[in-house]
Amino acid sequence: MENEYRNRQFKSFNSIQRVRSITMAIILLGMSIIMFAADKLNLEQIMGMDKIFRYFFGFICLLYGGFRLYRGIKNTY
């Protein structure tokens, strides 16, 4: 009985982690798209940032978002 409860608890934890990882990946990938395409989207507040910082931050968001997406899909926790 105890073992069955632990298995359900583990599956529940894994599904919550998977949803959280995929959601964070979508947010981070969206942020990287916004950083890269701020000029085309006419976003004044983001265009006011230094261009090097904007591209660097977008690149970091792209890498970490890709990692979170990979981790969420492969379910490696």
Architecture blueprint of SSEs:
Elements: H1 2-36, H2 38-41, H3 44-47, H4 51-74
Q: What sequence of helices (H) and strands (E) makes up the elements?
A: HHHH
Helix proportion = over 70%
Oligomer: single chain
Q: Are there runs of 5+ residues with pLDDT below 50, and where? A: none
**Can you count the beta strands?**
0
- Count, helices: 4
Distance from N terminus to C terminus (CA atoms, Å) equals 25 Å
- DSSP strand content: under 5%
Coarse morphology: rod-shaped
Radius of gyration: 18 Å
Q: Average the pLDDT over all residues and give the rounded result.
A: 88
| Count of discrete domains | 1
Instruction: Characterize the largest beta sheet: strand count, sense, and whether it forms a barrel.
Output: none
SSE-based structural type: mainly alpha
Describe this structure in words.
With about 80 residues, the chain is mainly α. It has one domain (about 1-75). It is built from four helices and no strands. The chain has helices at about 1-35, 40, 45, 50-75. Helix 1 (about 1-35) runs antiparallel to helix 4. The longest helix is centred in the first third of the chain and has 35 residues, at about 1-35. The radius of gyration is 18 Å and the shape is rod-shaped. The mean pLDDT is about 90.
